[in-house]
Every structure is written in structure tokens, then in C-alpha cells.
Amino acid sequence: MRWVDACRAQLSPHHHWSRHACHACPACPACPARTRSLRPVRSLSLLLGAVLLAVTAPAVTAGPASAAGPGTNHATDDPFTSSRTAWFRDAKFGMFIHFGAYSQYEGEYTRPDGTVCRNAEWIKRSCAIPTAAYETAARQFNPSAFDAQAIVSAAKNAGQKYIVITSKHHDGYAMWPTKQNTWNLRDHSSFSPDRDILAELKTAADAQGIKLGFYYSIWDWHDPDFPNADTFPKYRTRMYAQLKELIDNYDPALLWFDGEWDTDNPVNRWSRQDGAELETYLRGLDPGLVINNRVGKRRVVDGDYGTPEQTIPGAPVDGQLWESCMTLNNSWGYAKHDTDWKTATTVVQNLLDISGRSGNYLLNVGPDKLGRVPAASLDRLDDVGRWLSTAGQGSAVYGTGGATGLVADPAWGAVARKGHAKLYASVFTPSWPAAGQALHLTAKVPFTVNSARVLNSSGTVTVTKAGDGFDLKPSGGPVDGAASVIELSITPPSPTAPGSGTGLKAESFANTSFSGTPAATTTDPTVNKAYRFDGSPAAGIPADNFATRWTGFVQPRYSEPLTFTTLSDDTVRLWVDGQLVIDNTTPHVPQVNKATVTGLQAGQKYAIRVEHTEQTGEAHMKLFWSSPSMEQVIVPRTQLSPS
Ligand code: FHN
């Protein structure tokens, strides 16, 4: 069967075959999006894999993420537990780099009338710089002092485990030798044509064990096809091709999209469906990618993680991993006038707060026009790294999960949990108790504290049960620096052994009233469905107007309040042990609902029933659970049984 036919065979009969549709089948070598040469190693295995499939099976499948049409579930794993996201969840701390043609201005533009306008990466728009003038300035851009090794070393020394650099910001200027246009660092600058800073950064990051990701702005102020509805598809095709260049040529671990929001000047036509299709395409190119939620519309169903900006959520985010991104001063790009630097203490305390709530911290640097990271940034990063590497204080960050289930998030600092039996209570220095005073730690479920010690100190801590938790009374003063970490060895509630569940019975109907004979009946290992716009529970069920009822039993592993969280679109109802605990039957856009059920005993089986309907448009249905001892995950297969 010819490749193109194989692609068509893969797409549902309803699917309009077009150049764009092929993005849904990126394994197809005839697919225009694949006209660029793949990287030698991976492409060979991909090609061989596809060839084998072609020989042994009529249709070419390039992995579930690249499938499209009825019967597709785009949720290929649980970002909370998958091996694909493990590095990201463990990393905790990354370096953001905003670097582009805007850096040439170093934050300041003198208008023809002599007035001075200040901004960083938005300078073209904020200061209304004419495009011709901006292009002239870009022509002078020569980041000759960009030192990838030094930047990666600074990140590593700071304790940052990954780097995300702007490959293309809103000004559309590509920081790599893209073939899609000449508005890039290779073709439109004074930079050496023999250099490629993304390649230099990739080499340096690989050599130092640092993951590399690329920021990519969907919103493009420069591309002539971006503003108009009739030409936007041409921009989108170039965007797909640029992203494929980045993946094929630099093998990023992560893509950080931005510029997804509805706006004008130029009007941004990017839609939720565009985001869904792009995510499918990218995961078809590289199933290992971690992708943020700005690939779509910055929602809980887009990408792998949420992206709160310049802020820290007060608690773990429901239904999604999250990463807080922040500037070190107030500017993302370099701005020589902006000297309002955060202190290293603030950075450490932010990182501790974020770790205690199961998030990541992406902290930004903005290199100047020569590519040099400001000394003020490097000094702070150095201080942060020193704190983290002193006396094991980094234990309060790396490889931790949030402890906000087990204990209340304290006003005096932050608490993170590491493994089964360690809590790291970080007391922010101003909150260190006066002599003879104690800190209170509220426990949400009973557990025992066996010992306590202050890292980087010979001081002791007396722990006494008090009220709804424990009083922690240190013997001495605080440790120098941002925070004093009290390591608590605890005996928490223990889980029962994992169950032997296989999942829930799933009956899907080609209607929204659960009427008649199910069009498909199966055992679903989990309730983890991202049908998006084109998918459905089975090939014979159209992408709209369907329903699924999951039934069976759920087996808790802890005898403690159990919170069920649903992420649904269009409607959801959830019964546990015969009680209707979530009832959201008004058709809705992707929405989180939660219900906490008490009295369930570990190891026992309780009836569970989930009903989901999809009217039209997007469709999603995920069932998570969490408890004081258990961070939020998709309810695992082992704890679900169909009968
Ligand atoms: O407009 C951009 C801004 O320049 C910067 O890149 C930040 C970083 O997350 N994102 C957008 C604002 O939300």
C-alpha cells in the first residue's frame, strides 16, 4: 500500500484529506511535514519501524499520539507518574533564557524625536519601533560572547537541572538557521555564520547532564502570513516545519510554547483545536517530549503542565503538573535599566514553597546583546546553588513531592516530603522562633515523628505532640541564609500492598443517554481520556454525541479521606460506594470537580461508577485521586477492578 494511501487509511473516512491532515500521520514519509531529513539515528529506527509495520500491516501507525479520528484517545500516559515526565518532576528547578534580536536594544530605544522608550523583549511593540528599523538593528546583532559552556555551568552550579531558551519570541526572529525564512540569527545578523547557538547549547547541556528545552512563540509579529485568515495556514505550516527542525536538529527534551492567547496587532487566530492538533503532531514526532499548556490555550487539558507566571500557586494544581516561571529582576529580556533584582534568599524561599506544593521553578536570565548573562544574575544563581549544595539542604527540593496532604502548608516556611519517611520543614529565616518558642506543624492525619535535626547545624529540635500536630522547638538559632531546614524522620500511614486490579468495565454508547446496546464494551485500565476534538472511545463511535459508563470497584491503599478529582468535558457524574459524589451534568468546557469521601478502609473494595457524556467539540475524562498520604495521580489500574 502506498504511503499516502496508508496515511489516508489511518485517518478516519470522515477526515478531510489535506496537507494539514497529514500532520496527524507524521510517520507517513509522503507527508509534506516530513519532507525534511530526519536525524540519522532516531530517524533510522523510526523509518525501520514504519517499514516493518508497512510490511506486516496495511496501515502505518506512528504511535498512539499520532493517531487521529474516532477511536483515538490522545492521553498516552499520566504525566503525574509517567517515565516520560519523571526527569521534569524530579528536576524541580530550571533556567529560563530570554535571548533574541530584541537583546540588541538592551532594553532601551531612542525614538527619532529623541525620547527614550524602555522595554525588553516587547520593545518593538511597546516602543512602536518601525519594522525596517527593527530589522536594521537585528542586522547588527552579534552575540559573539555567547558562551554556552559557561551558561550551562552557571545553571548547573545554581542547581538548575534544565534550561529553556527562547528559540523564537513574538518578534518571529529565529535563533537557529531555519530554512523557513531569512529572519533568523544565521541569515539576518552580524553573527558568525559558522556558529549555531542552539547547537552549542545542546552540546554543552548534554555534556553536563542538563536537559534542554525550547521556548517557541506561536504569536508572530513578523511573518506576513500570520495576520490574515486566508494566509494563516501558510504560517502554521511554516511553524510546524520550524518545530520539526528544532526536534530533528537539536532533540529538545521540552517545548515551551507561548503567545497562544487571543489578541490583536497582529490578530492571533490560534485556536484550542490548533493546539490539540499541534500537540498530536509533536508527540508523533517525539513521544518523549514534555510540552507545556501554552501549546493550546493555557488550560488544564493542554500539554503536560500548567505555567503560572510571576506567581506561585497556593497549593498543588488540580489535574495538571505545574511550573512557575519568574524573572530575576522585572524583565525577561535583557534591560540595562532594570536593576530591581530579587535576592538569592527570595529565590531559595520561592523554590522551597514551590517544591512543597509539587511544582517546578523556571527562573529567567536575559543575556545582553553580546550574549553575556548579567553578573547580577550570575551572583544570585551562585548564592542559590551554594545554599542548595550546603549540608544537603537541596534535599528539601530535589526528588521531593508536596507534603501539603500530610501537613498544612506553614506560614513560617515550607514542607516537602521525600520518599515515605522524610519531611523537610524549611523555616524561612525571619520566622525562626525566639529562644524557648516553638513552631507548630499541623498534621492532617496522624503520624509519628521519630527524630528531627537541623541541616547544616549542630542544633537540636525537640518535637512534642501538640493539638492538631506537633510543636518543633529548636535549641539554637537559625542557620545562616535563606532558610533552616529541619529534617523530620517520620512514621507515616503505610499503604496496603498494591492491588491486582485490571481496570473498570467501560461501556460506550453512540448517544449521550446511555441508551440501547453499547457500541463498545471493554476493560479500561484507567479513566484517562483526552479525546480532544477528533477522538472517541472506539473507531465506530463518531467524535461527537457519545457517552461512556465505567463500572467496577475501587480499592484504597490508605484508610484516610480520599479525594476524587475529575477532569471532564462535557459532563460527568461519579458514584463511590453507592453515593453520587460528583454531579456536573451541565455541558461544560474542560472542568475540574472534586469530592472527598471519608470512611473508606484500605484494602477494601468499594463500588465505583463514572458516567461521561460528550455532546460536541472537545471531550475529556480523567479520574484522579489523592489523600493526605498520596499525591494526586490518575487512579491506578491496580486499584480498579471491573467486578
Ligand atoms: O509575552 C511573553 C513575555 O515576553 C515572556 O516571554 C513571558 C514568559 O513566560 N511570556 C509571555 C507573557 O506571558
From TrEMBL:
Keywords: Glycosidase, Hydrolase, Membrane, Signal, Transmembrane, Transmembrane helix
Pfam families from the UniProt entry: Alpha_L_fucos (PF01120), PA14 (PF07691)
UniProt keyword Signal present: yes
E.C. numbers: 3.2.1.51
Ranges of biased composition (kind: Polar residues): 509-524
InterPro entries (alphabetical): FUC_metazoa-typ, GH, Glyco_hydro_29, Glyco_hydro_29_N, PA14/GLEYA, PA14_dom
Gene3D superfamilies noted in UniProt: Glycosidases, Toxin - Anthrax Protective Antigen,domain 1
Domain PA14: from-to ranges: 499-639
Region named Disordered: 491-524
Protein's UniProt keywords contain Membrane: yes
Transmembrane segment boundaries: 44-63
Family (UniProt): Belongs to the glycosyl hydrolase 29 family.
Annotated function: Alpha-L-fucosidase is responsible for hydrolyzing the alpha-1,6-linked fucose joined to the reducing-end N-acetylglucosamine of the carbohydrate moieties of glycoproteins.
The name this protein goes by in its record: alpha-L-fucosidase
Record organism: Streptomyces formicae
